[in-house]
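Usage

Read records sequentially. Each one opens with the input sequence:
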Amino acid sequence: MMKTAIVTGAGSGIGYYAAKTLFENGWKVYDFSRTNRCFEGVNHIACDVAKEEDVLNAVRSVIEKEGQIDLLINNAGFGISGAVEFTDPEDSHRLMEVNLFGADRLTRACVGHMRKRGQGRIVFISSVAAVFPIPFQAWYSVSKAAVNAYASTLRNEVAPFGITVTAVMPGDTKTGFTGSRIKTHQGDECYGGKIERSVSKMEKDEKNGMSAEKAGAWIARVGMKKRVRPLYTIGFGYRALVFLKRILPESLIGFLIRMLYAK
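and closes with the structure output:
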């Protein structure tokens, strides 16, 4: 029987290539996003993950057509940047609604169907920024750290039902995510120009990062594995950094991040 996957935000970037890889491996793939920009063969359902009714209707449609959901990849998200004290609460709240609560809405809508079947997998797209919070993009780091904690908690709750859960942390990746970031340089004069310098460096790193195609395919393969670890980091260099984070003093890690992104 053909397996069924839902990928949120599959219209571009990492989600696009995750959906493409699944499709090429014989999966029935549904893209949940606000615009239909995915490739032929993937089933698009208009869905704003920040809206409960959209999510429930979209999942209901998949169940009616396929009768099952084997894999959910919670990929939809966006970023904002700026100093914490000058960040508009509407922007930070919107980011949390999509990056964290959007993933929660999809999970709650799908997990009951998986539980009844006694199987399923949920993959959360996190970020290395979850464990290396970067100055002047606090809320993105907060959202991804929360995603890691959410995934860790969920994993233990649903394990008895045959549902496996993992979170994947990409590092810098070349996608349209960079161009769609909501940026504010308000207060940059108070911070001696550090906001603009930090964001410019961060965006340069992203533009020179791993290709979205490679990251998306990597994530799809995690979705298709027989067994998964609780947490993955994409790329040897980033895996090494995450390992060092565990053994080096927090003060040293903080100093190094400050030298890179807050000089």
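Summary fields computed downstream for this record:
- The chain has a mean pLDDT of 93.
- DSSP finds ten helices and eleven strands in the chain.
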